[in-house]
Amino acid sequence: MAKDVIIACDFSSARQTFDFLDKFEGTRKPFVKIGMELYYAEGPQIVREIKRRGHPVFLDLKLHDIPNTVRKSMKVLSSLDIDMTNVHAAGTIEMMQAAIEGLTRPDGTRPLLIAVTQLTSTSQERMQQELLIGAGINETIVKYADNARKAGLDGVVCSPLEAGMVKEACGKDFVTVTPGVRFADAAADDQVRITTPAKARQIGSDYIVVGRPITAAEDPVAAYNRCLEEFLND
Ligand code: C5P
Fold first, then answer.
1. Cα(83)–Cα(29) distance, integer angstroms
2. From CA 6, how far away is CA 57, in angstroms rounded?
3. DSSP string covering 38-102, please?
4. In terms of Cα–Cα distance, which of 223, 180, 169 is closest to 205?
């Protein structure tokens, strides 16, 4: 299975994003994650331009709506030639199936589609008291991951520390995309459940999503290369 490092381009404008990506001219083109902030600020043109420059793109918009709306929205996104996108598993199996239908191109190919299980900002206490979900958070994560698998999705976004249990429940080919990665000698920032690139690989991550350890580094290209080395090599 493909393994890669995805850089979270959490910038608020095209200018900042391209100033950053320009540093990678003439090197391996990193896989980049475009989130809601940048997409809502700059629209689909930012995706087209990043693709034109040769980067694989994970469009992290976390769709969650009625199946018909998700199907039609995914159809629009599939025309952007992205490589990976996502939905909330809480939208139900029917919604996830509609997402796949919308995303599938006329030739039968489609970008990878992954599901968000429970956001890492949702604690077990909030889940139980505010959302009236009585099960434990790990049980919920595994159940939502299994729903995603049943709907035909390729995998889930989860904490690297949850990747092992997701693989155990859904099989080794079920893709895990994991943020919350930090170098052993660096600051955690606001992330709580973190691990290093090497440890993420050992636990079973297929793609690690790394933001500030690369984007805020003095030498982002060197930080990216270090990440690749630690994640991909034994
Ligand atoms: O800068 P940092 O490496 O913490 O960035 C991590 C990226 O992964 C951010 O874009 C963040 O929104 C995203 N993410 C996360 N935790 C989740 C889901 C997404 O950190 N559970």
1. 14
2. 9
3. HHHHH-HHHHHHHHHTT--EEEEEEE-S-HHHHHHHHHHHHTTT-SEEEEEGGG-HHHHHHHHHH
4. 180
- pLDDT tens, 62-90? 999 999 999 999 999 999 999 999 999 99
Interacting residues of 9 by C-beta distance below 8 A, sequence separation 6+: 17, 20, 21, 32, 33, 34, 35, 38, 215
Q: Where are the alpha helices (DSSP H) in 171-219?
A: 197-203, 212-215
**Residue of 10, 60, 162 best suited for mutating to test ligand 1, as the one with most atoms within 8 Å of CB:** 10
Q: How far is the CA of 68 from the centre of ligand 1 (A)?
A: 28
Residue nearest to atom 16 of ligand 1 (CA): 179
Q: How far is the CA of 106 from the centre of ligand 1 (A)?
A: 32
Across the strands, what pairs with 32?
7, 57
Whether the model clears a pTM of 0.85, i.e. scores above it, the answer is: yes
Classify 166 as helix, strand or coil: helix
Binding site membership of 10 for ligand 1 (Cβ less than 6 Å): yes
> Where in the sequence numbering do the catalytic residues fall?
62
Residue with tokens 């933001």: 211
- Please name every residue paired with 86 in a beta bridge, in sequence order, or none if there are none: 114
pLDDT tens across 183-199, in order?
999 888 887 778 999 99
